[in-house]
């Protein structure tokens, strides 16, 4: 059990840390591509300066995401070898395609975009950033397809003779309804993250009245992006909630700490309960909302933890099939709450910056914009923790328990040592990344004279620049 707990902690730290960079890379790559498209079409120097400035921050973030992502995949062979042996044929297929196709696409064309200024035509250079952005989106889909198979295993069978799961329909894995729902929800959350990042940096400069010709349109773009993406998060989140109720009813019951089946079911905004979450002492509730989230009907029935636990014991045998209730309950609410706050900031910002507004934007909004940077990252982390902890005790839902996937030959000192080393290393990388991001964010965009490429009308010989 000690090995299992340490391995889970290590995977959680690496995964949550890695996921700090992924949403920003995906959303910001598309926004930068849009900025360069605006420059390509209008030849307006402001858009070129925006492209160069936000593109530099994108590259720093992308580099950190690559480093942490590689380490994450190594864990499957180190701490989770039994998991890899049992389901590797299925889980590894979308990850292999992600590495060979999507990551190759984004990294190659991002490299061409970096070194292609003044060496490629404007149109070809623009195509590079768009292909890189498409690659980041494809990477997200293939990775989510692998994770969604763990949430809702399809297209596979369990071969009892060989003692492992085998892939029988790869198309079913890629078109898994859970994967489609998770992808749409994740991508919209990525745009919320990128929009709030652009908003925070822009607000910091505008509060000091610096580079207003660049950061005013940047902030406006960010506000529109966050508003549209927030609406998308709500719609796709509603879709995911119903899929979750259908495929993993225990996760939905744990999200509400609902112990007994009830119809209609209310949604608690805030609850004070016992430490194990088994007893409710005080709560503030909204009638019928949980029924609507789970079933699409305000009178729908939502199954309780006790009934689902009894059903699981009949199906899988004796055992505890409930996740950590306090953790799932609060991460579910933190995810929703932080996301809604980000959307609210965008609504207020769009109202304050509307064209007919004669008054300047109040300085307090710039402070709110900078502080709001934490919201999407906190929401993403809470959502990821809820998704993974709510599936417990399963590594692959209904197929393989988490306790059965840990490496049997790895000793406790080994796992503890790697956990400490990786945590300290990631802490140091966080300091370096924070320093670089803050330094270049404060530096602002390049001057107009140095931002404009010297030759963008025709192709030149491509050479690697150092």
TrEMBL record:
Compartments, record wording: Cell membrane
Keywords, in A-Z order: Cell membrane, Electron transport, Heme, Iron, Membrane, Metal-binding, Transmembrane, Transmembrane helix, Transport
Protein name: Cytochrome ubiquinol oxidase subunit I
Mode of membrane association: Multi-pass membrane protein
Family: Belongs to the cytochrome ubiquinol oxidase subunit 1 family.
InterPro entries: Cyt-d_ubiquinol_oxidase_su_1
Entry keyword Manganese: no
